[in-house]
Amino acid sequence: MANVILYIATSLDGYIARKDGSIDWLSMVEASDTDYGYADFYQSVDALVMGSRTYEQALGFGDWPYPGKPSYVFTTRNLTSERKDVIFTSAKPDTVIREMEAQGFTRIWLVGGAELTAVFLRFRLVDEYIISVVPTILGGGIPLFLPPIPEEKLKLVELQQYPTGLVQLRYRRK
């Protein structure tokens, strides 16, 4: 069975982006010499799932930031890509995860955004949470968790503190 991992950054007050979707506030920690375990994490996953706005934001980064990994983009819009590793779907998340499992994917990164994360939580599809808390208070924006989501008991597996003040929390579902 595949493990779905939510690997995401949030502000101290629980926002993953500004109200306009901007993540410019992450530049404070991106300027650091450390990658916060990102390279190892990226190598450990077989495929990615993301919402369409997260996909469009990734396109704005220049080169496709997720090369060599199938990226499933959940959307109801008619989006297209010339990339063979980008797959658009409007299917239910549990159906897509079953299809991914059938293809042999065992570790799937839930990239975001907030709406897709909420749907995955409602389907109880998230097995692991790697949350990087950035020492910034935004005061508003797009929250990490959009209600309604079910209550979930988690077990802290690892905690890593970095010189930039970023704290990375790793939880597993109990």
Q: What does this entry look like structurally?
A:
Helices cover 22% and strands 32% of the residues. The model has no long low-confidence stretch (mean pLDDT 96). It has an 8-stranded mixed beta sheet with strand order 5-4-3-6-1-7-10-9. By secondary structure, it is an alpha/beta fold. It has one domain: 3-Layer(aba) Sandwich (Dihydrofolate Reductase, subunit A), CATH 3.40.430. The radius of gyration is 16 Å and the shape is globular.
Question: Short description, anyone?
Answer:
The protein contains five helices and ten strands. The chain is globular and about 40 Å long.
- Beta-strand segment tally: 10
Let me know the average pLDDT. 96
State the name of the first-level CATH class.
Alpha Beta
Radius of gyration: 16 Å
Going across the biggest sheet, name each strand in turn. Answer: 5-4-3-6-1-7-10-9
Query: What is the name of the CATH topology?
Result: Dihydrofolate Reductase, subunit A
Order of helices and strands: EEHHEHEEHEHEEEE
Q: What low-confidence regions span 5 or more consecutive residues with pLDDT below 50?
A: none
The CATH H-level superfamily is Dihydrofolate Reductase, subunit A
Question: Would you identify the CATH architecture?
Answer: 3-Layer(aba) Sandwich
